[in-house]
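queue> pop job 88
queue> type: inverse folding (structure -> sequence)
queue> payload:
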């Protein structure tokens, strides 16, 4: 899980890079869920929350 403090101190480039990585992870988690291969289903919600946090940061801090 990403901490609020860590997200606040990110540069825009790092935030965008992490956002893309999290989106890819979420995409893969969805396929794993369909195939019954996912080990920890809570990772899906955690990933969604982290995406929302980064989008919020990018929208407010760098807009």
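queue> result:
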């Amino acid at each position: 899980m990403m901490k609020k403090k860590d997200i606040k101190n990110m540069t825009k480039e790092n935030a965008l890079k992490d956002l893309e990585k999290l989106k890819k992870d979420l995409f893969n988690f969805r396929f794993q869920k369909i195939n019954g291969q996912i080990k920890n289903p809570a990772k899906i919600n955690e990933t969604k929350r982290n995406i929302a946090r980064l989008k919020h940061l990018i929208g407010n801090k760098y807009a």
